[in-house]
Write a structure and sequence with these properties.
Strand content: 5-15%
Low-confidence stretches: none
Order of helices and strands: EHEHEEHEHEEHHHH
Distance between the termini: 24 Å
Structural class: alpha/beta
Helix content: 25-40%
Radius of gyration: 19 Å
Length: 229
């Protein structure tokens, strides 16, 4: 062990400092249907987050190309990556299709590189995961989204939302009806705000790792790209 790079965790180092700007939350949904219930849930989330004092932006996936069909200079790809860097927390909501998230949703995440200009665009950001179901309640999608959030080094909050028979939960004005499912969404957004306020100013401390202090980025690149042992 390199004693010069070994660090004992400290409570004082983990105390958050206030920022002047509101928490910045990016919201993603996973359907291009005219009446997309994942989008309607995201819009409800945006209203709640605004009420909680956040600055919110919703990414519209329409026109985003499939990965490997265009290069990363495509305007929609650039918009998505800029929003990823801008955000301090995120909300993901996808419908469940064939027991999984939709390709529309996964494609958005596939355009986000692990490194962007030497910076991990999602590391240390907070995340809330949600899904909508056409039938009975399921948790396949939120479980998958948690795996993706962990892979992208995000801090996924404990609470989550799964809305069964989503077509029954919205009125003719596309607003969610009062219900236990709506109350859960309020809970999730409230929890996301709390975690974001705590972590956004010192996320670098919480994701700082001994192994990365010991091994430089150049050394990591050489190791993972070696052609022989």
């Amino acid at each position: 062990m390199d004693e010069n790079l070994f660090a004992v965790p400290s409570y004082k180092k983990g105390i958050s400092s206030p920022l002047a700007h509101p928490p910045r939350i990016l919201l993603l949904y996973g359907s291009l249907r005219k009446r997309s219930f994942s989008r309607l849930v995201i819009e409800e989330c945006a209203r709640l987050l605004t009420r909680f004092g956040a600055e919110v932006k919703i990414f519209n996936p329409e026109g985003l190309p499939q990965t490997d069909t265009e290069d990363d200079s495509h305007p929609k790809v650039q918009d998505l990556r800029e929003l990823m860097m801008w955000s301090e927390g995120q909300v993901w909501c996808s419908p469940e299709r064939h027991g999984s998230m939709t390709s529309i949703f996964k494609s958005q995440l596939d355009w986000v590189p692990l490194n962007l200009g030497g910076v991990r665009p999602t590391q240390g950001k907070t995340l809330a995961v949600m899904q909508v179901c056409g039938g009975s309640q399921s948790f396949n999608v939120v479980n998958q989204l948690r795996i993706l959030g962990r892979w992208m080094r995000m801090v996924t909050i404990p609470n989550q939302s799964s809305v069964p028979k989503a077509f029954l939960e919205f009125d003719d004005n596309d607003r969610m009806k009062p219900s236990a499912f709506y109350n859960r969404i309020v809970d999730v957004m409230e929890e996301l705000m709390k975690f974001t306020l705590l972590l956004r100013t010192n996320k670098d401390y919480f994701v700082d790792r001994y192994s990365e202090r010991v091994e430089s980025a150049e050394q990591v690149s050489q190791r993972v790209n070696q052609r022989s042992i």
